[in-house]
Specification:
The complex is a heterodimer of chains A (about 290) and B (about 350). The N and C termini of chain A lie far apart (about 50 Å). Chain A has twelve helices and two strands, in the order ααααββαααααααα. Chain A is an all-alpha fold. The radius of gyration of chain B is 21 Å and the shape is globular. In chain B, a hairpin with a 2-residue loop joins strand 1 (about 155-160) and strand 2. In chain B, about 70% of the residues lie in helices and about 5% in strands. Chain B has a two-stranded antiparallel sheet with strand order 1-2. By secondary structure, chain B is mainly alpha-helical. Chains A and B meet through helix 4, helix 9 and helix 11 of A and helix 5, helix 6, helix 11 and helix 13 of B.
């Protein structure tokens, strides 16, 4: 194999890992960064997105519309969860972990009871192409583009829209924002819905690539948490660079020793980074700035 | 001798509920009942009761780390698994002769404590805060599960012990007491019941003493306000690390006893569901008191058992609902909530009488 195909293979694997890490983490990072809430039901929002996407595609919708439905459905469930549970726990961040953990149990087992142990998947679209001796799935490149698109869209949302300005005001000094007439409760609801929707989007995007089972959330949740822990509270200064670094670790270790070692690499990375940068990359960057 | 007495005086204090002759009389009564219980029951039922006791240790470990120390750990099931597998590997390789099983028990628990010390060093000396602690420990647990899950192949063996992936490791010898007329193996029966009951009482009393000592007060001070505890001159990282290691050892003990009880352990004992169950018992029972934790765990566990028998698939959903409702309505747990409610009633009576 010559250098060019080798480089392409490495780049492709990096992009694949990067997309997975960023897509599964950004919803979690938005909720954690903005609200300080750790959402352990994140994986179940992803599962919800994937299931709704698959169901609507089976019902005859084209895949992009199905993914949209999955995103919206997760966002809707997110609003419900925020209203019923999360809203009452803002003063007790540790308890949000426990409560969302309970929600995740309910969602996993509830899905198992309602839908059954597995759901018919959706075929991966677009087929594949050949570089050197290996064939690559085009859809993975679409996923990479989607990850970049999500990061761009989030940047635009938080920097260029009225909601973004109000949301950032609410994170920085909630009481001041409330005093100036911002409906902080509404902002929190919308932010949670946004995070849940992003989780649903990740689920919808990955629905064609994996088997749909009630416990599929667990596949995402570890990568998502590792990315958020390393990245810290900020999506752009944290999640995106953390996704980049971890993608190198993961794709490198995976191609060296297989999938499991990719994940062990992530774990070792998180333990080391946490020892050196307790507040993650964004905490480090922001400390340097002030 | 006086030091010894001082230690005993720590059995009650500000960090544990249940004080005075009334409480200890009740304690003696419950203990006597537990000791007499096998006389009125058959070996099979008694063996099943041991299963409930096994889980109390891991619940106590969570009460210690989370309830008293204020740092939520999802890693308890990881230590549970490490010690469980450790016991299996040791005893399958070296057999059960000359009381080795008890040495294996201690070694396995020490193994869990060692891993916890290593992990805890990185976490606490890196000063990661409560929420991140939960995530890192969860990541460790899930990773361990995934690692063990892929060890089904014959190349994954340590000595004579096959790790066996999701098929689980089995056929390790039970705890065995060396005796003159030949060793006595403790199967899930009356013998094991008394051994585990003894351990449970010892651990419970020892933890009461620990929590009411100066060490326990510092731990609670760290939970209440870490900065203040630090300003008072305590190196909070050391205290947190020690608590974490003790907790891991207790979770490990749970793991060993579970393995001994069923002579079987699988990676699923480290999965998401397994990690969530102790959390539910402790949260629902009342995490910030040892007695409440023990009572809560036994009650919720037996309730869960009954649910699994009668409405198998709904049991987990029900548990999730119970957990969410407890967090929302009675943040201190149901047992503590009920105790506080009764205490309030009693004081009101007294005030009315006065």
């Amino acid at each position: 194999m010559d250098i060019a195909t080798l480089a392409f293979s490495a780049l492709y694997q990096f992009g694949d890992a990067f997309a997975f890490l960023v897509l599964s983490a950004c919803g979690l990072a938005v909720i954690f960064g903005m609200m300080g809430v750790i959402n352990l039901a994140h994986g179940e929002f992803i599962m919800c997105g994937a299931y709704v996407t698959a169901a609507t595609v089976h019902a005859g919708l084209p895949l992009p519309l199905g993914i949209l439905c999955g995103t919206l459905a997760s966002a809707f469930v997110g609003v419900l969860v925020e209203l019923l549970v999360i809203r009452h726990l803002y003063e007790r961040p540790l308890d949000t972990i426990v409560a969302t953990w309970g929600l995740s149990l309910i969602a996993t087992q509830g899905t198992l009871i309602l839908v059954g142990s597995t759901m018919a998947g959706v075929g991966t679209p677009f087929g594949s192409f050949q570089v050197g001796a290996y064939s690559y799935s085009i859809y993975r490149i679409v996923l990479f583009a989607a990850a970049l698109g999500v990061l761009g869209a989030l940047y635009a949302l938080f920097n260029w829209t009225r909601f973004g300005v109000l949301a950032r005001a609410t994170i920085q000094v909630p009481h001041m924002a409330a005093a100036l007439g911002v409906d902080t409760r509404l902002i929190y609801s919308l932010t949670f819905a946004c995070g849940a929707g992003l989780a649903g989007l990740a689920g919808g995007l990955y629905a064609p690539t994996m088997t749909l089972v009630p416990t599929m959330g667990a596949t995402f949740i570890m990568e998502a948490f590792v990315t958020v822990v390393i990245g810290g509270a900020d999506v752009f200064l944290g999640t995106a660079p953390a996704g980049g670094i971890l993608a190198i670790v993961k794709s490198g270790m995976t191609s060296w020793q297989g999938q499991l070692f990719g994940q062990i690499g992530l774990l070792i990375a998180v333990i080391i980074v946490v020892r050196v940068l307790p507040k993650g990359i964004s905490g480090f960057v922001l400390r340097e700035r002030t | 001798m006086t030091g010894f007495l001082a230690l005993f005086r720590r059995l009650e204090g500000p960090q544990t509920l249940g004080r005075g002759p009334g409480f200890w009389a009740l304690f003696a009564l419950v203990l006597a009942g537990a000791l007499a219980y096998p006389l009125f029951s058959d070996g099979y039922t008694v063996g099943n009761t041991v299963y409930f006791f096994v889980w109390v240790f891991i619940a106590l470990s969570l009460s210690l780390i989370w309830g008293y120390g204020g740092s939520l750990s999802f890693g308890q099931t990881a230590f549970f698994g490490i010690a469980g597998y450790g016991y299996g590997i040791l005893t399958i390789n070296f057999g059960a002769a000359y009381g080795f099983t008890f040495i294996a028990l201690l070694l396995a628990v020490a193994m869990a404590a060692l891993v916890a010390a290593l992990l805890g060093y990185f976490m606490f000396f890196g000063r990661i805060s409560g929420v991140f602690l939960g995530i890192v420990t969860l990541a460790v647990t899930l990773m361990l599960e995934r690692f063990m899950a892929q060890t089904a192949g014959p190349e994954w063996r340590i000595g004579a012990a096959r790790l066996n992936g999701f098929n689980g490791m089995s056929a390790m010898p039970p705890l065995t007491i060396p005796w003159f007329g030949g060793p006595i193996p403790l199967f899930a029966d009356i013998g094991l019941y008394y051994v585990v009951l003894g351990m449970l009482v010892l651990v419970y009393l020892a933890l009461r003493m620990l929590m009411n000592s100066a060490f326990g007060n510092v731990i609670v001070a760290i939970r209440e306000n870490p900065e203040r505890a630090e300003m008072l001159g305590y190196d909070i990282r050391k205290y947190q690390l020690i608590t974490f290691v003790i907790g891991a050892a207790l979770a490990g003990l749970s793991g060993v006893l579970y393995t001994v009880w069923g002579q079987y352990i699988t990676p699923s004992s480290m999965g998401m569901t397994a990690a969530s169950l102790p959390l539910i018992w402790v949260a629902v029972g009342g995490r910030s008191d040892l007695t409440a934790t023990v009572i809560g765990t036994l009650v919720v566990l037996s309730g869960f058992q009954a649910l699994t028998i009668y409405g198998s698939q709904y049991a987990l959903v029900f548990m999730g609902v119970l957990l969410v409702l407890t967090v929302l309505i009675a943040p201190n747990g149901l047992v503590l909530g009920i105790i506080n409610w009764i205490a309030k009633l009693v004081t009101r009576r007294k005030q009315e009488a006065a």
